[in-house]
């Protein structure tokens, strides 16, 4: 048990290194680096540093500081104040959806219904990490099958060869996660949520 925990921590450190090295660390990591002393992943229970990370979004430096109207823009805190936050301090969109705080439409006019599929797929090519549970329901509440099938995912369990590096580079799950959906880098356990059985040597 201690051994596998150490392995998990080692993998985390490795992932940190890889992510930083490939230089694709995304706006979030760039911002977090400015805001925090070291970009080490917080535990799921951490909240304070997460809020720092969220607020770093307001310091992105995209807007002209000399423009008098700049201060009229909403800060991220104002824009998201009615939403629940996840352990990293970013909006917890699934909770917002479940609690009815948001109610996305299936089409522009709000007349169609979503085609919701309640099917979990356990993805097992995860080395020492817990297996990944992919929940169709959470996704098809607001995404269409065609967003994911046939690309980037063949609709057959185990038919896709996915490496974490691909995800960090913005492919597969990374097309949305780290972009519009929760941050991959700080939330391993939200995807890797199924402990492996007694298969370890
Ligand atoms: C958005 C979901 C998601 C998150 C978050 C996530 N992973 Fe993964 N990970 C996957 C998927 C999907 C696979 C491929 C599983 C398969 O094909 O069976 C995978 C595979 C892996 C693998 C095995 C393949 C490889 O690249 O060696 C490792 C190790 C891994 N993840 C580590 C991590 C670590 C460490 C973190 C956190 C820093 C993390 N993952 C966060 C979805 C995720
Ligand atoms: C956000 C992405 C996403 C959306 C949207 C999505 N799927 Fe999937 N689907 C996946 C992933 C990931 C897998 C697992 C692939 C793997 O294991 O390599 C999968 C697997 C499947 C499988 C194979 C299951 C099995 O046991 O072999 C079927 C069938 C499927 N999807 C149908 C659908 C249908 C129908 C919809 C729309 C109602 C849909 N999917 C929407 C990502 C998605
Ligand atoms: C087409 C966009 C898209 C792709 C591709 C995608 N996701 Fe997601 N995923 C979302 C959105 C949007 C949410 C809800 C927003 C959030 O939780 O941040 C979400 C939420 C989740 C959740 C939380 C579900 C819950 O009920 O709490 C998990 C777990 C997850 N995704 C895993 C994955 C894995 C694993 C993959 C790749 C195999 C993947 N996703 C690919 C868009 C996507």
Give your account of this protein's structure:
The protein has 201 residues and is mainly alpha-helical. The protein folds into two domains: 1-82, no CATH class; 104-201, Cytochrome C3 (Alpha-Beta Complex), CATH 3.90.10. Helix content is 31%, strand content 4%. The chain has eight helices and two strands; from the N terminus they run αααααββααα. A two-stranded antiparallel sheet has the order 1-2. A hairpin with an 8-residue loop joins β1 and β2. α2 (26-35) packs across α3. The longest helix is centred in the N-terminal third of the chain and has 20 residues, at 2-21. It is globular, with a radius of gyration of 19 Å. One heme C is lined by residues 93-94, 132, 134-135, 138-139, 143, 147-148, 172-173, 175-177, 180-182, 190-191. The site of one heme C has 20 residues, from β1 and α6.
């Amino acid at each position: 048990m201690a051994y596998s925990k150490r392995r998990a921590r080692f993998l985390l450190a490795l992932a940190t290194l890889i992510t930083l090295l490939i230089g694709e660390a995304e706006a979030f990591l760039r911002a977090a680096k400015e805001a925090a002393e070291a970009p080490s992943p917080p535990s799921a229970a951490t909240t304070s540093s997460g809020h720092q990370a969220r607020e770093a979004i307001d310091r992105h430096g995209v807007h002209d500081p000399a423009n008098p109207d700049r201060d009229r823009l909403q800060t991220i805190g104002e824009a998201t104040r009615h939403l629940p936050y996840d352990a990293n301090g970013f909006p917890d969109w699934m909770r917002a959806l479940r609690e009815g705080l948001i109610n996305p439409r299936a089409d522009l006019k709000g007349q169609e219904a979503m085609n919701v599929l309640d099917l979990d797929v356990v993805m097992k090519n995860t080395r020492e990490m817990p297996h990944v549970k992919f929940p169709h329901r959470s996704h098809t509440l607001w995404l269409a099958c065609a967003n994911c099938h046939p690309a980037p995912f063949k609709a057959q369990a185990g038919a896709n060869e996915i490496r974490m590096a691909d995800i960090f580079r913005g492919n597969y799950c990374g097309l949305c996660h780290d972009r519009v959906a929760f941050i991959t880098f700080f939330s391993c356990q939200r995807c890797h949520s199924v402990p492996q059985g007694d298969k370890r040597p």
